[in-house]
Amino acid sequence: MFNHHDSKPAPTCPPLPYSETPQPVSGGLTLQHILLIGAGACVFLTAIISRFLVFKHLHRYTFPEEQRQIVRVVVTPLWFSVASLLSIAFYKAALYLNTIGFIYEAFALAALYLLFVQYVTPDPQLRDAFFYNLPFKDRKGKETGGNSLAWFKRTWIIVFLYPLLTFLLYIIQWITLATGKYCPNSNKPHFAHLWLTLLTNFITALAVMAVIGFYGRLKQPMASHKPLWKLVSFKLVVFLNFIQSLVFNYVSANKSVIAKTGLKFTFDDLYIGIPNLLICFEMVLLSLMMHFTFRSREYHSNNGKTRMST
Length: 310
Prior knowledge:
Elements: H1 31-59, H2 64-74, H3 76-89, H4 94-97, H5 99-120, H6 127-132, E1 135-137, E2 143-147, H7 149-178, H8 192-222, H9 227-252, H10 255-258, H11 267-293
Antiparallel strand pairs: 1-2
Helix pairs in contact: 1-2, 1-3, 1-11, 2-5, 3-5, 3-11, 5-7, 5-8, 5-9, 7-8, 9-11
């Protein structure tokens, strides 16, 4: 009754190049082992640098409402580097493990937003009154009448929905990966990779623009804290990761490059190992940068009442 020969077959996920059991490069160590050693050293340095900054803030814990948010932000490079280290150690689980850093980054962005709010209105009891008395401005910076309370609440909701939605989207990614419906190397609409990537990028852009918009409206009251440098140093973590993923996705799709992989330099080394080693190295630099953008010196107090100039 029905002609089954006319139905189109379901799209299949194109397989990634197969990596055979690698051979040692030197001294019985495979390239994966060498990459793992290098990444481990970078994670160790990142942990020391980040923890030292945390210690300095806790040692001068004079403004807890601000500093607890700073502590949450400055350990972001450590989360990314640990996720990358685990991805190198377990190639087959890398697509699950490398999401750890991005999930934490979503929560850290909310912490950075809370820090900015704290700079502007230290007293939560007066927060609504402050934004009610703040004139509303359009995108061109012109006052349009009315107050900014609704704008502040809308921004608050967008920023705090971001970690929740990010976590839910990565849960869906893990499920679709396990069931073969994700297909990381295909952008066909039949697979979840395209839709999850679009949704993740959309909610990320929305949350980041909300934080940038808050900074733009209130940068004068926050000027002494140099919030722009804080925002830049924090988002550099994700920006570098994004640029790097574009480059290595292009390189790993190049047939001439793939042809050069073999038993000593596998496709997994190219597609997973080297990019994650670079992330570990970059996190060392970014954790150092945060010592300058999230300095503890401004919290050095005289009986907890005054701040030193940075």
